[in-house]
Give the backbone structure.
Amino acid sequence: MYQDIREVVFTQGDIRAAVARLGIQISRDYQDRDLVLVSVLRGGAFFVTDLARAIPAYLSLDFMAISRYGPRARGEKGVRILKDLDEDILGKDVILVEDIIDTGLTCAYLVRILNERSPRSLKVCCLLDRRERRLVNLPLAYVGFKVSDAFLVGYGLDYREMYRNLPFIGLLTDGARERLSPSSTTPTGQGSR
Ligand code: PRP
C-alpha cells in the first residue's frame, strides 16, 4: 500500500499536532458544557476518535452515515441518511466533525438537519478545508489544515474505499489511481478528490 503514495502531504506528526491544537481550543471553548461530537461515517471516524482523545473533558460521541446519489451538484437532493444519531441533541453543545470539507454541501445539509433538532449550539470542525471547491458559505469554527485542490488519501480519506488506514495523508501515484479505477465504472464518494 505504501508504494502507492508519491508524496506525504501531512505526516503523522503533523496530524497529531493539529489534533492536539484543536483539542486544546475545543477544551477551552467548551468548559463545563454538554458536548457531543457528531461525525460522519466513514472517513470522519479516524479524525473524531483521535480528536475525542485530545479533549480532556466529559463528552459523548455519535455518528451518522449518509449516502449520495449522482454528482455533488445535486446538493441535498442527492443525500439520504443511512444511519441517524443514536442520541437526542436537544439542548446539547454539538460539534460536527468532518475529515474534509470540499464543496461544503454535505456539511451544509447536516448542519441544517441538526439545527432543526434544537441543539444549544452547533459548530463545525474539520481536519482539512479545501476552500477552492466550496459551493456554499459554511462557517468553520475549527480547522486543522487548509489544503489545495489535490487528490488526497489516508487518515480516513479513501480512494475506492482503500487507503483510509494510512496513518498520514498523501498523494496517490497515477499508477495506483489507474489500477484501482477501471474505466468501465465511475468512482464513488470523494472519487473526484
Ligand atoms: C467526504 C467527507 C465529507 C464529504 C465532503 O465523504 O467525509 O463527508 O466528502 O465533501 P463535500 O464538502 O463536497 O460535500 P465521502 O463522500 O468521501 O464519504 P466517506 O466519508 O465514506 O469517505
Remarks:
- The longest strand covers residues 59-68.
- The pocket of PRP is lined by residues 40, 42-44, 72, 98-107, 158, 189-190 (CB under 6 Å).
- The chain is about 25% helix and 30% strand.
